[in-house]
Amino acid sequence: MEKKKLSRIDLKKMKDSGQKLVWITAYDYWTAHFAEQAGMDMILVGDSLGMCIYGYEGTVPVTMDQCIWHSEAVRRGAPSIFVIGDMPFLSYQVSVEEAVRNAGRFYKEANVDAIKLEGGQRVCAQIKAIADGGMLVMGHIGLTPQSSGQLGGFKAQGRTVETAQELIKDAKAIEVAGAFALLVEAVPPEVCKILRNQLAIPVYSIGAGPDADGQLMICSDVLGIFQAFTPKFVKKYENIAEKTIRAFKKYAEEARSGSFPADEHTYKMVKGELPKLKEVLSV
Ligand code: KIV
Predict the structure, then answer these.
(1) Ligand 1 atom 6: residue of nearest CA
(2) Helix, strand or coil for residue 166?
(3) CA-CA-CA-CA torsion for 165, 42, 178, 205, nearest 10 degrees?
(4) Residue among 228, 152, 237 nearest 186 (CA)
(5) Which of 84, 140, 208, 263 sits 20 to 30 Å CA-CA off 178?
(6) Does a cis peptide bond (omega within 30 degrees of 0) precede residue 188?
(7) What's the pLDDT tens digit per position in 55-107?
(8) CA 198–ligand 1 middle distance (angstroms)
(9) Is 166 known to be catalytic?
(10) Which of the following is catalytic: 185, 190, 253, 264?
């Protein structure tokens, strides 16, 4: 039976009843299709696609068009999952007007259910304007990859009293601005637990421990595809890289030796046509 797509109200009910939500990133039709079959609650078309699909060193080069194309493919692969489009670098920082227009592109062109953007108090005007435009916005604080340069690299956040207090201020401001949920990345579990308890909106974790309203993981990490580096919070549930290389090597070996393609992989001529062709060609 096809699972019913969750709504903002369902997400809030899940938080209030203590039911954990599980979501994953996806960037293409097939991964989204498999995520739907596996019963995921939500999908993020993360700008992590810059690293996981395009091989960039970070997320900064990712464009709005790339995010839209991948979100469209994901929507086709998972028509009944709540899909979130990720606003890439410079799609919302320049002005509130640009932020609303770009959030709207995700809705109009890729049929997403919500958008996500990074940052705390400094992006609250954008969050408010997008929410006022009738769209669902998720906040994202802690390790925010688009500003990793400012953070001094891909580093855990909120590990001191001052920085934890700053995160709490950011989280509350995001809620007041009208976000429907908050994602917290690479933050100590104790800080995430405080955020979850102090906010009425759902608070989800990626690398912020178990005391959240749900968990997000990057698909390429779960599958063991991404090889450039492995953050501390990642658990690899498969080693698809190894399996892929093994399959490619076997194919190359068989094609070189001539054992592939075998008879069952070829098309037959219509009965009686081969002798006639040979006669015509005198071969
Ligand atoms: O782009 C992404 O996948 C994200 C996660 C790292 C949270 O924003």
Answers:
(1) 48
(2) helix
(3) 0
(4) 152
(5) 208
(6) no
(7) 999 999 999 999 999 999 999 999 999 999 999 999 999 999 999 999 999 99
(8) 23
(9) no
(10) 185
